[in-house]
Amino acid sequence: MISDSKKIVTRFAPSPTGPFHVGAARTALFNFLFTRHHGGVFILRIEDTDSARSKKEYEEDILRGLSWLGIAYDELHRQSERTAEYRGSIERLLRDGTAYVSAEERDGATSDVIRFRNPNQPVTFNDAVRGEITFDTTELKDFVIARSVEEPLYNLAVVIDDGAMRVTHVIRGEDHISNTPRQILLQRALGLPQPIYVHIPLVLAPDRSKLSKRHGATSVSEYRDAGYLPEALVNFLALLGWSPQEGAGDEAAEIMSLGELIAHFDIDKIQKSGAIFNLEKLQWMNRQHIRRLPQEKLEQYVASFMPPDVASLPQYDPPRLARAASLIAERLKTFGDIRTMADAGELTFFFAAPPYPEPHKLAWRTASREETVRHLEEAAALLKNVADRDFIARTITAVLMPYAEEHGRGNVLWPVRYALSGKDRSPDPFTLAAALGKEETLARLSLAREALQK
RNA sequence: GGCCCUAUCGUCUAGCCUGGUCUAGGACAGCGGCUUUUCAAGCCGUUAACCCGGGUUCGAAUCCCGGUGGGGUCACCA
């Protein structure tokens, strides 16, 4: 299907009339993956012919979003900077009679528009994912192609640009299928070659309608701000309407880096029907990518999403954060969850000794205070013997477990955990102690003991 | 409504082109269990689908036809 002799050229052509949408991001991604897989040229073309609706801030949002996702383009063009090109083509169309100026009334005022003289031929094209599609173009009438020689409308601008930029594959949303016959008619009038069309299925909301604002977060920046990893979003979006080769495998096979996606991507495995944007799967995928993050990156993410009230705690410092980071990350779907954890008080104990307003909670079920104090003392004594550099979860477990087994795990482990966190819910005592460090662990153990003895 | 696209577990999908190996596979979610006994995570197990009706064929999820459902599109927007 794809001839090797011809260099592949694709383009992603968003119009900057709103925030960068995840559906658009997926279209960009499919173009990018396909192009990189085949070693072609990927063009970003800003379609800002409608000056009234196009905004610079939206263009910036698109650029920022693409860069965050790791989707790099080879060329950047803006239609607003190509009026000379359009003028030439439109004048030619006018000259040879395939287009004509028509004075028309609109909103009470009369103005000239340029219409295409429709040859009324049936148009058939071969879509790379759907096969042959035929349209009877007579119903299109003499459609308007420009407001003036310097103001082409969407369909014309696209055709001129795709021709000028030698685009070989037009990969875009299914909602553009109905534009295709108009564009083909224009190509024929302009004597331009016809690219290969690849219409990809739409991204749908859970109710099967087009994904829109009322369904929640739809823009790329919202997902970034909520603490999703770009690699997770990219991975998730790639799997919406596409799957890697045969036997789409087990769980691990679905987790792919950008590089792996590029290696596997091709258009023959693109789905024909719309795909629902399933937030739960995105969250799961985000977890998977968080788990694969190198320690250093993980710390950076955790730190950057840490709310100020936690970050200003007395013991909030780099070494402690480094030890707590993976423990915190283990418990979240997105880095934005750090905020929720902080609000629930599940973070403060990492960076400040907890108060013990309810000493009775230190004792496990029916255990007496005296007994609990003894266990706390003994645990502290055992841990004191562990060297600083051996103060890791595995060693701590090995040291504490025999004693806990002997006196009842709950009786020992619960008060130790509670002494360290001051919380009903928290990580287990061993990892917690490791995260806190030896000195702090012993300090909290004795603080808890004092609270009990009061 | 016209035109166009589309149809496998609740969701994303494998299989369909090259009919049998499909008592339809995987993943997310759900459910159940396990654990260094809290919570989370993790691990193990498990429920669940070929839209309907006709054909073709020894045999159809796979091929053909017709319904029905879903979606898109019908601008001097893109």
Walk me through what this model shows:
- It is a single chain.
- The chain is an alpha/beta fold.
- Among the domains are: 213-291, Orthogonal Bundle (Glutamyl-tRNA Synthetase, domain 2); 295-351; 359-453, Arc Repressor Mutant, subunit A (Orthogonal Bundle).
- It has 20 helices and 13 strands.
- The strands form 5 sheets. Strands 4-5-8-9 form a 4-stranded antiparallel beta sheet.
- Helix 5 (180-190) links the parallel strand 10 (169-173) and strand 11 (196-200).
- The longest helix is centred in the first third of the chain and has 17 residues, at 22-38.
- It starts with 8 loop residues before the first strand and ends with a helix.
- The protein binds one RNA strand of 78 nucleotides through strand 5, strand 7, strand 8, helix 4 and helix 8.
